[in-house]
UniProtKB/TrEMBL annotation:
Single GO molecular function: acetyltransferase activity
Highest taxon listed in the record's lineage: Eukaryota
InterPro entries for this protein: Arylamine_N-AcTrfase, Arylamine_NAT_domain_sf, Papain-like_cys_pep_sf
Protein name: Arylamine N-acetyltransferase 1
Family: Belongs to the arylamine N-acetyltransferase family.
Gene3D superfamilies: 3.30.2140.20
């Protein structure tokens, strides 16, 4: 990749490519003439999450390996194979596959711009103790590096802007959520009564024993509400409501230039410390399920064999539980996985 001459240039799909994207996410071509609105954004966002998976498989299998004789899959063997930014379009739209956040969200941004949405491409800091209460858990406020791309969407003559994230994976908020500087934040229910999220305007929360930065500005933290299994959420959520808020990520509302995204992509996909090369994950929301998600997960662990676990989580049936159900096991060789991904996730090879 050469250094971009225009660091904040924005990719935007033409009508033909936007039509192909609509077909990929199973929406009608009649939407091509729709003006930007919250209703349209919500429709495009949910269908995107239902059809396009978060997918780390490019990091583990070189494309040519899928076509030869079946061979064992070795994690991180395709270190530099993940497409960068909007160049993932062909993989996502024409090959019916997925990618990780620095590819999916860049491609989704170029699609949303076709409709006239104003899209900021931002980078976030992921919470490293997912599911835990940082106010009581020994990990406290355990933050990672800037390894997640996300989007903020608005449109001309509309006062509000919304977080939309097409590639978080498990516990993905599947509705746009408004950015506000109100101290109470913005709280919404997800796709069922057992999902609730809050977007808070605040400086990066830190534990009392941590040294605060010398210079700091407020950003936004996205939280997921966790309550005892079987307990539906009801708005408003107050300090007396059952459960606690667990962070997903924190971000600053500052647009990131293209070269910086290349750096973040490298650290996540091809650097020796890259985190995404350590596991295999393909996951998406099951269409029409009210938020249930089907995931394929594998990590090399001593004594656990070489099979990926495929399981369903979430949705109203789970009633707030993160436990997997409808479990299957898939041998991690290219022939078996290729057949499974073709049948169950619609991949085209």
């Amino acid at each position: 990749m050469s250094f971009p001459a225009d660091p904040y240039a924005q990719a935007k799909l033409n009508r033909a490519d936007a039509g192909a994207y609509l077909e990929r996410i199973k929406l009608p071509a009649t939407l091509l003439d729709s003006p930007p609105s919250l209703s349209l954004l919500s429709t495009l966002f949910l269908s995107h999450l239902e059809e396009i998976p978060k997918d780390t498989s490019p990091l583990h299998v070189p494309e040519e390996q899928w076509d030869g004789p079946s061979t064992p899959i070795k994690l991180s063997s395709a270190f530099t194979n993940m497409p960068l930014g909007a160049s993932a379009f062909d993989r996502i739209v024409h090959e019916n596959k997925g990618a990780f956040c620095f590819s999916i969200n860049a491609s989704f941004a170029s699609f949303l711009r076709y409709f006239g949405f104003t899209i900021s491409e931002l980078v976030g800091r992921s919470f490293k103790s997912l599911g835990n209460d940082p106010t009581t858990h020994p990990d406290g406020w355990k933050w990672g590096t800037l390894t997640h791309q996300l989007l903020v969407a608005g449109w001309p003559d509309h006062p509000d802007r919304y977080l939309v994230d097409g590639a978080w994976g498990p516990w993905n908020l599947a509705k746009p959520i408004k950015l506000t500087t109100d101290p109470a934040g913005e709280t919404i229910l997800g796709l069922n009564d057992f999902e609730a999220y809050r977007l808070s305007y605040e400086e990066l929360p830190l534990s009392l024993h941590m040294t605060p930065p010398v210079d700091n500005i407020p950003g936004y933290t996205l939280y997921r509400r966790i309550a005892p299994v079987g307990t539906p959420h009801a708005l408003p959520i107050t300090p007396n409501s059952p459960g606690y808020w667990s962070p997903l990520f924190h971000f600053l509302p500052v647009s990131v230039p293209l070269a910086d995204f290349a750096l973040y992509h490298h650290f996540s996909a091809s650097h020796e410390m890259a985190s995404f090369t350590a596991f295999w994950l393909i996951t998406r929301i099951i269409p029409g399920s009210g938020g249930a998600r089907r995931s394929m997960m594998y990590a090399e662990k001593a004594g656990e064999g070489t099979r990926a676990k495929v399981y369903t989580t979430g949705g109203p049936e789970a009633q707030g539980s993160d436990e997997g159900r409808d479990v299957e096991w898939v041998e991690m060789d290219t022939g078996t996985v290729k057949a499974y991904l073709t049948k169950e996730f619609g991949f085209k090879f």
